[in-house]
Structures are given as C-alpha cells and as structure tokens.
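fyi for ur records
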Amino acid sequence: MDTTVKINSKTYQLQRYPKTSDKSLRAWSNAELLVLDYITEKNIEQVHLFNDRFGLWNCALQHKKVTTVWTYASQQKAIWHNLELNNFSTEVDFKTPLNDLQHVEVALIKIPKSLELFELFLQQIHKASHEKTEVICGFMTKYFSPSFIKVAEQYFEEVTQSKAWKKARLLIFKTPKKEIQKKNLINTIQWKDRALQQYYGVFSSGNVDIGTQFFLENLVVKPEELRVLDVASGNGIIACEVAKQNLQAKVTLLDDFNLAIESSKINLEGNKAEFLCDDTLEHIKENSFDLVVSNPPFHFEYENNIDVALNLFKGVENCLKNNGRFLLVANSHLNYSTHLTKLFSSVSVLQQNKKFQIIECIKKR
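which gave:
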C-alpha cells in the first residue's frame, strides 16, 4: 500500500483510518491533489476544508489558518493520526456541518457521494460568504453527476469545470448569489405511524431502506433486555422501535456520522437514550448490554468494504453481557455468519428473504 505522497517538493506520510485489508487503496485521491495544485499559486491565508477524509489537506496546508468541517468520528481520528505521523500539531479547528462558519475566503471540498451532503456544505459556505469567496471542489470523473452543477448554481453565479487530470476534475464556484431559496435541509421519512426527521446526507433520505424495514418487521425485544445498544444507528429508527417495544429499556445509539447522531437526537427526544458519535466500541464498558441491534455498513463512500463492520462485531462481543444477544440485518451475499461464528458461541439465521438475513448471535462464556 502506497503511503507517501509528494506535494510541491515536500513528501508526506499518509495512512488510512479505519485500516483496510485492500492494499490498492490509498489515503488520498488525484482529485485532492488537483485541488492543491490549483491553489498553489494563490495567496491564501485562511481556508475551510470539507470532506478531508484522511487529512491530506490538513497536512499539506498546516502552515495556513485552517478550519476543518468534519462529518465522521473516524475522519477526525485519521486527521489527528496523519498530522502526528508528519510531526505537525494535532490542534485542529473542527466544525460540524451544523455549525455557523465565519468569513469563508476559500473553501476546498472533496465532493462526497451524497449529493444532499454536498448541498448542506454549500449552504453552510454560502451563509459565511462574501463577494470574493471561492469554492474549489475535486472529484474523480467516473463519479461525476450533472446534479453537482445544478446544486451549485442555486448558490453561486459562476460555476466552471476544469480539464481532466489523471481522471480527476475540478468544479470552481465564484460570486455567491445575493438571494437564494433557503432550505431547512431536513428530510421527513414516514414509517407506519411514525414520522422521522433526518438531516441531509444521512443514509436513505427518501424512505426507510429495505434492509431496515425487514429488520423492523421481525424485531422482537424481550422484557428483560433493558440495556440496548444500536450500532451504526443512523437516524435512530431501530432504537425508536426498541423503545416502543420495551418502555423500560435504556437505549444507547452509536454512529460514526455526526449528522446521523444529531438526527437521532430529534427522533428519540424524551426517551431514555444516550448518543455517541464514534466509529468503534472501544470506550464502551465490557459486559454492559443485554441486547445489541444493528444494520451495519458495508460501504465506505464509493468503496465496498466490510472491514469496518468486522471491527464493530469484535466490539459488540466485548460489550455484551453473558447470554446477551446481538441481532443484525445484512445482505445475504456478505456471508457475515462465517465471521461471527469466530466471535460468538451461537450464531443462527432467524429470518431471511431473497436479499437479507436477520442473524442472531448469543454470547456465552
């Protein structure tokens, strides 16, 4: 796996976090390098960074006044790790996509997979923009969508596209519009008699995804399952069902994505719930939960990657009480049962259809 990159005669060490077993994957893309090349000759002192997933821009621009808008707990960890790896200060001015920004001069965006998250970024920038604000967006050409431009034209007068370089391109936005149609940037999703709220960018914005639907239709929480953990909790819909079935249950929700956690806070307001934005279960006390539920992720942006889910499974085993249950829904082709039998004494498929399995794991020591 390539871990060194040279930028303007300087060499940087960059490692992926979370770690991956795929040695072809790097901690940067040509799209991010193209953005840096574009701004090299510009006299920039202050810069705002969006979707700097592994910290390439934080490292290359550490001599500037940098504000980093973070969306994932794992992203924060990757940035800290790579700054430390290159002997740079790990003090980072972090903001979330819901924080107000101050006076954006130049913003760099690696365009995310989610078009909604991209728009949320643009609205956040627009609120803090002035007539000379410039936004430089990098993307790999194979992921281009005309929708990027349509969204940008709602916020900026000038929207231009660069020539391709090593299968990467730039979109450059200038002259923020003085008047825009402001959006709340929150979706409402209906599930039976329940209406759930979630911020733009959270998984499955139009409706409850079919895997979660299958899980909810077959979920039965036992009366004695009072401490429940929802891993990769998204907008909190599974935790809502747990709380509905067992009024005495205290539910903990954990998700890597900060906008997912903020959405679940809306949906579980008034319930006995705890919210954790984290990508691992390392900080959760062992033997502390009666039940863990999950619709675990197997995508990392455009990549299919089960490494994240497999690491979560190890954490689940550690935090479950003896005789505790782990219930998860998964695409059948992922063959999670093979991995789970290495961790749990009992693994069985409770329900399945043509696409999904609901797997029950029991911890016994």
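Residues 228 and 291 are 5 Å apart (CA to CA). thats all i got for now
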